[in-house]
Automatic annotation (TrEMBL):
Protein name, entry field: Heme-binding protein
Native source organism of the sequence: Phyllobacterium endophyticum
Origin: domain of life: Bacteria
Gene3D superfamilies given in the database record: Haem-degrading domain (3.30.450.150)
């Protein structure tokens, strides 16, 4: 039987809490999305002042990273490649995006979800999403470590 770990609401909330804490500590605002292994939202949080467009963009970044099992930026870079580039519409779903800031959560060989941030620079979105992924993975390690 195939058994794949999955993200719980508590896992997703842990990632969001870490990211929101970092944003508030630096007086910044953004949208944070955490999706399950199919890219469907578990948690979405928008801080006051975050751009409205970032709501859908964060959700799409998480969806893309989860579905494609790679960072959303990698999809964007591949689509813009001079020789191997492709039209994003070819994927068949309008939720695909190539903006950076969506990262898959990988446990073993399985992608169990994704964390995404939108509303800041690409580098800031990615760094905060990395913090969220790390918070989830730390929680998985502590659950699976023998006492």
């Amino acid at each position: 039987m195939l058994q794949i770990p999955c993200l719980s609401h508590d896992d997703a909330s842990r990632a969001v809490d870490v990211i929101l804490h970092a944003l508030k500590a630096t007086n910044r605002s953004a949208v944070v999305a955490v999706a399950d292994q199919q890219g469907e939202l578990i948690v979405l949080s928008r801080l006051d002042g975050a751009p409205y467009a970032s709501i859908q963009i964060a959700a799409n970044k998480a969806w893309t990273a989860s579905r494609e099992r790679c960072p959303s930026l990698a999809i964007g870079q591949a689509s813009r490649s001079g020789e191997a580039g492709f039209d994003m519409v070819s994927y068949g779903d309008i939720r695909y995006t190539g903006f950076g800031g969506g990262l898959p959560v990988i446990v073993g060989d399985a992608v169990i979800g994704a964390v995404a941030v939108s509303g800041l620079s690409t580098q800031e979105d990615i760094a905060l999403a990395q913090d969220g992924v790390a918070a989830i993975l730390k929680g998985f390690e502590s659950k699976n470590t023998p006492a």
